[in-house]
Specification:
alpha/beta, Rossmann fold, 13 helices, elongated, binds NADP nicotinamide-adenine-dinucleotide phosphate
Amino acid sequence: MNTAAERTDAKPAVTVIGLGEMGSALAGAFLDGGHPTTVWNRTPERADPLVARGADRSETVRDAVAASPLVVVSVKGNATARAVLEASGDALSGRSVLNLTDGTSAEARAVAEWVRGQGARYLHGQIMTIAPGIGAAETVVFYGGSDAVFRDFRPALALLGGRATLVSADAGVPALYGMAVHGTMWGALNGFLHGAALLSSEGIEMRRFLDDAGPSVAALLASFPVIADEIDRGEYATPYGALQHHLPSIEDLIRESGDRNIDVELPAYTLGLVNEAVQDGHAEDSYARLIEHFRKE
Ligand SMILES: NC(=O)c1ccc[n+]([C@@H]2O[C@H](COP(=O)([O-])OP(=O)(O)OC[C@H]3O[C@@H](n4cnc5c(N)ncnc54)[C@H](OP(=O)(O)O)[C@@H]3O)[C@@H](O)[C@H]2O)c1
């Protein structure tokens, strides 16, 4: 049987290194998309289901890297990503590396610099879904690094997620995008769950609340572009809804929560932020002014 590299399919061969939950989903998407797919994993048996679906298993990282022009890496941490790629020796030269391993922006940049030093092109990707979401039209993947890799392998990348965006030539930026989304998510989820504790203490079901208050909650997202513009301009003057008008509502929430024996740490933190800004003379500014607190300059 021909190896993946020897077949003459029009679709470029892809190597996937790392077959955990995510790497297996990535390799499966390439297989389903008709790409000759070579796989390598530290624990070789994890490749068995993919081999049964038509993937070629390499015994070594070097063979795996040599098998395809596009080398996709999905392992635990960027230190591991680099260590695994180091094992490929000079086989990396001339390849395109797509690293889909999560970490900090600095870690991604360090891997990018090292890979480029081996004579390979580098693209980093931040996957914004869990493994079952790979391949869905609405799945978002932020890419950063070589626009040539992004362009040359665009159809293959589209198999991973329908919403593929090259956000920067800098390989570190996708991680920042991901963190900004996740940070927004955790903030919103914490607020929602605090609200749920409040409502359920009154016996109100959350589905009923969402039916009634859904548009009000959705309006929050609709306000983000205005906040984004204020932050980008560094101007926080507002005719309505200034910081000082938030204070009574936050204090009410804290008193209500306390009365119901519900944790007040979250609204108390918010109260601290707003009070700090008001005391610094920003009572008439919009909520976006609080960006200055987080910057800690
Ligand atoms: N799972 C998700 O839903 C999801 C979503 C978004 C992003 N991600 C990201 O995708 C990446 C992979 O995550 P995962 O969920 O697939 O993780 P996982 O299921 O825990 O698999 C980890 C992978 O890393 C490999 N690995 C760990 N240490 C290694 C080492 N020292 N040398 C060689 N290989 C090593 C493992 O090999 P063995 O099989 O030999 O242990 C396995 O292939 C992570 O950066 C994660 O944050 C995952």
